[in-house]
Design a protein that fits this description.
By secondary structure, the protein is mainly alpha-helical. About 75% of the residues lie in helices and about 0% in strands.
Length: about 280
Amino acid sequence: MTAVATQGSVDKLGEQLVEVMALMVLASGELSDQHVEQILACTLEHRAFAGMSDERLRTLFSRSLQRVQEIGLTKMFAEIRTALQDYADRLLAFAMATRICFADDILMDDELALLRTFQIEFGLRDAHVAQIVDAMQRQENMDELIGVLLEQVQRQRLSREEALIEVMLLMAAADGEVQPEEATQLAMTIASQEDFRDFGERQIDDAVRNALTRIQSDGIANRLSVLSRVLTDAPTRLKAMTYAYSILLADGILASPEGRCLRQMAKAFELDEQAMRQVLSGRV
């Protein structure tokens, strides 16, 4: 049973990766011989396409192009993002998309814009994106590259406590500057909540410093995508929003960037109107 499930997941990954490559071909305007060459190179390099016949690949590719026309780009993106939950798969998908972009050695504006959308939708760090773009431009092996990036990710994996602290800092930094009142509220929350009881002073200092660096480097949208994969259960997400809202209220001023950040958090954490009413009323 395990072998069957594993093969099924690999087949499904292959289908999603074909859809990603199809989107990039559409962005370039036409399917060229160079695109076909790069698509075949991608399929030969990765296990997700092991055993997939050329006929099956062509069928999947044609179906993907047709589905984009039928359901639109936004829905297609949403489906791909939902299907590719693993960060490694998202890195691989972005690498394949990038390789397709460089099929004709020219990175067009539409292709660059779509790559940027992929990065945001997948929550990929700027540093990883830069490494992938450089490696794909030089036609390096994708699997080796993804292995290197995953080692980096493993070293940088967030704990639940670090993620909760970063959620609060995202709100504090939403208007461009962490106000003294917001810093005080952050410190009070960490000191008073059970979630942080096992966190020492040095761990807290490191968590705050590292989170601010990530926020500055990657931006709010990318960080929320990452945090949503760390804080996965509904009660924890609701608690994270409550902490963030306490930061928002700390200086008594609701700036428009803060309101926008609150809405982005609600969307990233998939909190409905009822959940948000709980947060805003303090009934969590």
